[in-house]
Amino acid sequence: MLSFISKTTRRAALVLAITAFAAPAFALDNVKFMVPGSTGGGYDQTARTLGKALIEGKLASGASYENKNGAGGTLGLAQFANASKGEVNALMVMGAVMVGGVVQNKPQITLANVTPIARLFTEYNVIAVRKDSPHKNLQELINDFKANPSSVKWGGGSKGSVDHIGIAEIASKVGVPVDKVNYIAFGGGGEVVAATLGGHITATTGGYAELSKYIEAGQFRVLAVGSPTRLTGMNAPTLKEQGLDMLIGNWRGVYGAASITPQQRKELTDAVAAATKTPYWQEQMKANAWTPSLMVGDEFTKFVDDEHARLRAMLVKVGLL
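The structure assignment produced for this chain is given below.
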């Protein structure tokens, strides 16, 4: 009898051991993403792409997303900092736009109140017009801009964003006073697309991923890209090729919650870094014309500090601060 019980117990223990071994050992549970922008915008695309990569890479059991738009992303930052303290499964998408928002708005809660995790990629801007626009190339658009600055309505992200700074810098280079630029700020990619297609905006600027389906469908014509070299798969010249020696690009990254331990930060960083090696992530990098630029640890922390200084100087230079 004892022998039978002993064998049964051993078999049960073996089954439990095999089951435990077979079950996926997720690095993270359900990841709660704070998206400091509107649905369909660049932050939203980044969050959902990273969430799916974490799940498909078996690095997280699931993902959920909360959108909180406004004030250059600093409203979402404040909510994230206050609501997720010590939560190892919390991530907030951020980037150059949020750094600019912090510089401009001087909020009480800044990026110093949360935990740096990783820079993910750089997304270079495109300048596009609707298909029936009279501007067939960038030079035609610039000619009208110089002749009558207020007649050209530029559409893009929030005031002080990479989009806004980029257009202000173009104005400076072609001799248009920055205070004459007619820039209309939008909270998300969907809004500026609708305004441009509706004829309310002369030209729009933003990341390729936000505009790609409209470009591919022929609804938008790309006049220029803000990258160092032409983007793969796009037959559009760079700004440099057209006489404007400048780049317009936005990087994106993620931060973790406040008050997580160094070990929790490492685990979160390792999971995010591993997600960027998954086939799904790599596919999306190509599809969205995102340029890989992974950076973690103290190097990323220093990079963000340097970005504060760089963007502040740029905002002063173009008259936005």
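Interim note for the steering committee: The chain is about 45% helix and 20% strand. The longest strand covers residues 115-130.
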